[in-house]
Amino acid sequence: MAQEGEFRWAAEVGHSVEYQAKIGPLESVRDPEIIYFDNREHLKEFLHKLEQLSEQIVLVFKDYGIKPVKNWFLRLIGYGSTDWQQESCFLLSWCDDFATLTFFDKYDSQYCVLSKPQTPEVPMEIRQKLGEGEPVPIDECLPKSVAFAAAREFLDTETRPNWLWYRYVR
Question: What is the pLDDT of residue 32?
Answer without folding.
Answer: 72
